[in-house]
TrEMBL record, chains A, B:
GO terms for cellular component: protein-DNA complex. It comes from Idiomarina ramblicola. Belongs to the LysR transcriptional regulatory family. This is LysR family transcriptional regulator. Keywords: DNA-binding, Transcription, Transcription regulation. Residues 5-62 form the HTH lysR-type domain.
Length: 304, 304
DNA sequence: ATTTTTAATTGGTATTTTCGATTATCATAA
DNA sequence: TTATGATAATCGAAAATACCAATTAAAAAT
């Protein structure tokens, strides 16, 4: 049996893949450029294959090299987890936990969540990161993040998920406008172009449109906001109506406004909230406990 | 950041766990006893925890040590897979594939399967192992086997599975006896204690009894056989009736006998055939192709 | 033409790994 | 009680390796 590749060399490869430059990668690993260079050559010899194509000035990862990087990432992160686990004496609720959250969820859960986790698991070091779904998924894959709190349905690529709960959408509008619309909501009574939404980078836009059966509706205004708080301000200025998730309302986003929230048409106008993680993780138990904490904060908890 | 544990030391730990003896473990790893001993100590220092309790003569793995072994196994096998993958230039259908099969499936698929795999993937080295479900699951966990072909439903512990297809049970009896029973089968017309089954180590016994709704029936004979071929011989000797899976009949197990097969009572008298693998594997693609080959050999193919 | 940037190479040093021999401890047999 | 055998830890020397600084080689930028 040939010798296993060393974790050190694999980590050199990962750094090189990330930096795409020997010097920077070497600095990243706190070794000299020559060390990293020969480490990579060493690895190629051991694996008996070409990982990068060199052209005397620059280089390129081969297809096989890219795949080796993928697998190496899993191995390195599993090793890091083992190290951390053992050093924590088997206490799974200890050490850093890097959680990524999309912007239409983050502001309405992180306050309560970090307080509750701090109380229950004081040694857990929660590191939050707010970004779009696509960026978060990329960073999860990279090993830069451990778990993601996303709105579903969504293509989560090769990852696994737990559905934590449901978050209903509410139609939010000025109370004067609400009177002319009445309940149940009849979108036809709204003026054309009077529904404002977030930029399409935010998955909530798609979810709200789908959930409320408004695809291609003339009612929608082409101007898009970058945050829920902007949307609320616009609605409060009588510019029109918008959709706001229940969790934002529960957190008081409508306080000090003249806005009211109505139940939209369609019996299931809601998004699912899910926790997403790599299938190769060895920290399911840790994640599960965090999942339970998050689920308790949601408008509708469906975690079984 | 503290240094990652070396794969070498982790493999020493695994060997020690398997052999429960420093000398044998060292021999297993092709190193001296002192090397292995200090490797373990080294690992304990790096992980900053006690993995084994020593009492100057013998030793015992601590609870934490056992858990570290579990995680280390995943890391080592992922590394082996990476090595193998890269050395095979990314060809996933190459090198050894260790497949475990239960005795009530093995004889009826391995002939065709190994022939087909040999034809399609000549570089794939299929290594078969026949054992009971429980032993196979243990060996899968150990990293001793890569995938298992089992009959389901079954507790497959933390593993993952694909359902490949269905295998109906048939009631098999001597043609003279069959005349007195008639169709549809009425078990009441069979003499008491005239149904013979396999030893209870074989999961097929439970599956057949459940599928045909015969729990605690007075019709069953307490004598149990160790193989399907024995059962068939007994039925042919007019000792009674028995259940035989369709795949065995398709393979001609009833040839040169005076036996007939009848459809048992109960609309779903069948077992599922599933392929089971570790959730941490990185060879899903390889396994999937094997799964497809196996599914094609089953009486009812349900692999989607 | 010169300088800068990049990765590979070289040669020497420091570190780590490994082994064989030895020691210490215990269980068991004589 | 004293040998004997088995075990795991320890020690010191030897071998393997990992690492760095300096250099080279090639290309790109100035």
């Amino acid at each position: 049996m040939s010798k296993l590749p060393s974790l050190k060399n694999l980590s050199y490869l990962l750094a090189l893949h990330q930096e795409q430059n020997f010097n920077r990668a070497a600095a990243e690993c706190n070794v000299s450029q020559s060390t990293l260079s020969s480490g990579i050559q060493n690895l190629e010899e051991q694996l008996d294959c070409q990982l990068i194509e060199r052209d005397h000035k620059s280089f390129l990862f081969t297809a096989l090299g890219e795949e080796v990087v993928e697998k190496a990432r899993d191995i390195i992160s599993a090793s890091e987890e083992l190290l951390h686990y053992a050093q924590g004496q088997g206490n799974i609720m200890e050490g850093p936990l890097r959680l990524g959250i999309i912007p239409t969820i983050a502001p309405f859960v992180i306050g309560e969540l970090s307080k509750n986790l701090q109380d229950k698991f004081p040694k857990l070091l929660l590191q939050l990161s707010e970004d779009t779904t696509q960026n978060l998924l990329h960073r999860l894959r990279n090993g830069e993040l451990d778990i993601l709190l996303l709105a579903l349905p969504m293509d989560i690529q090769g990852n696994q998920k737990w559905i934590l709960g449901r978050d209903p959408f509410k139609l939010v509008l000025h109370k004067d406008l609400a009177e002319t619309v009445g309940e149940p909501v009849d979108y036809d009574k709204l003026p054309d172009r009077s529904i404002f939404l977030l930029e399409k980078e935010h998955c909530m836009t798609g979810h709200a449109v789908a959930a409320c059966q408004l695809t291609d509706s003339i009612k929608m205004n082409p101007f898009t906001a970058t945050s829920l708080h902007s949307l609320v301000q616009m609605a409060d200025a009588r510019l029109g109506a918008t959709f706001v998730p229940q969790m934002a309302i529960d957190q008081g986003i409508l306080e000090n406004t003249a806005l009211v929230s109505l139940k939209p048409t369609g019996q299931e106008a809601s998004r699912d909230i899910g926790l997403v993680y790599r299938p190769t993780t060895s920290r399911r138990q840790t994640f599960r406990k965090v999942a339970e904490e998050i689920a308790r904060l949601l408008p509708v908890n469906t975690l079984n």
